[in-house]
What we know:
disordered N terminus, alpha/beta, 7 helices, Rossmann fold, globular, 5 strands, five-stranded parallel sheet
Amino acid sequence: MASLGTERASSSSSFTPCWTYDVFLSFRGEDTRNGFADHLYFALKQKGIFTFRDDEKLERGKSISPKLLKAIEESRFAIVILSRNYASSIWCLDELAKIIKCMKETGMTILPIFYKVDPSDVQKQTGTFAEAFVKHKKENKKKVQKWRATLREVANFSGWHLQDG
C-alpha cells in the first residue's frame, strides 16, 4: 500500500477515480483513539499513505457529518477497527454502512481489524455487540437490521485478529 500515491498519479486506464485519501480509518474513539488507532494512523502516514481519521474537533451529533461521508466516498481503502464498543456507536454503524455502500458502488477495499474482540462475536452479534443492538432497538428500530447485516458482511472478510498477549 505504500505506493498508492504514485499508483494514483501514473494510472493509464480510461477511468481514473479521483481518490482524495488512500485510506479511511473507522474506529470507536473511546476504545482505540489514544492507542491502536493513533499508532496505525501514524505508521500509515510515515509510509506516505494519505489517511483520513476523524478528529475530535469534528462536529458531534446524532447523525454522521457530511464531511465524514465525503471522506469515505473519496477513499480507496477502509480499515475498520472493530473493537468492544464499536457497535454501541450509532455514528460508527452509520459510517460502516456508508463504507459497505462504497465498496459495492466504487470497489472500495475494506480491511477489518478485530481489536480485542472475537470475529465470531461480530458475525453472530454476541457479547457487547448483542448488548449494543438491544439498546439501539429502542431508538433506531428501522436501522438495526441494516446495521446487523452490515456487521455480518464485514465479519466475513478476511481481516486481522488482535488480542492481548
